[in-house]
Amino acid sequence: MSETAVTATTTFRERLYVTWWIWPLPLLAAALLAAEVHMGFPGVRSWLPYVILLPLTAVLIAKMGSTRVEVADGELRAGDAHIPLELLGDVEIIAPEDRRRAMGRELDPAAFVVHRGWVKPLVRVRVTDPEDPTPYWVISTRRPDELAAAIKSGETRS
Predict the structure, then answer these.
(1) Is there a contact between 2 and 158 (Cβ–Cβ < 8 Å)?
(2) 145 has a pLDDT exceeding 60
(3) First vs last Cα of the chain: how many Å apart?
């Protein structure tokens, strides 16, 4: 019997939102850019840059933080990509202090990466499918232990 959307279980779900302390700098930069335009034009054109640039900057920051990581319906989903849990192998948690090495000299160019700089811990998941050229996935997560456990528990059920 196959699972339907109603009976399927989600064992892990996380949104990689942008933390509050990142917001001020881009908003300040947008305000300064708007002030530059404001100084050069009188009338409507003086306040129009503020009306356009500040909301646009806020929308772009929110969009950057809309990435989801999820283990549900027998699949690992990260961003727009998904892979069945039965095609996954070893799960490795990469501590924040090892992140630079894992994302630098140790990173395979063929790896699938969902990395957000404001989320420090990473999880590396090996892909066991011989047809797939991707050796592993590297995913940013604030809850690496929970993600690793969800992937491992999903693999044993399949």
Answers:
(1) no
(2) yes
(3) 13
Q: Which of 126, 122, 88, 128 is nearest to 103 (CA)?
A: 122
Strand duo 136-140 + 112-114: pairing = parallel
d(CA 55, CA 65): 16
Report how far residue 55's alpha carbon sits from residue 24's, in angstroms, rounded to the nearest whole number. Answer: 13
74 contacts 84 by C-beta, under 8 angstroms: yes
70: helix, strand or coil: strand
- Which residue is it, tokens 């727009």? 80
Residue 2 is given by DSSP the state P
Lowest mean pLDDT among 17-21, 62-66, 77-81, 153-157: 153-157
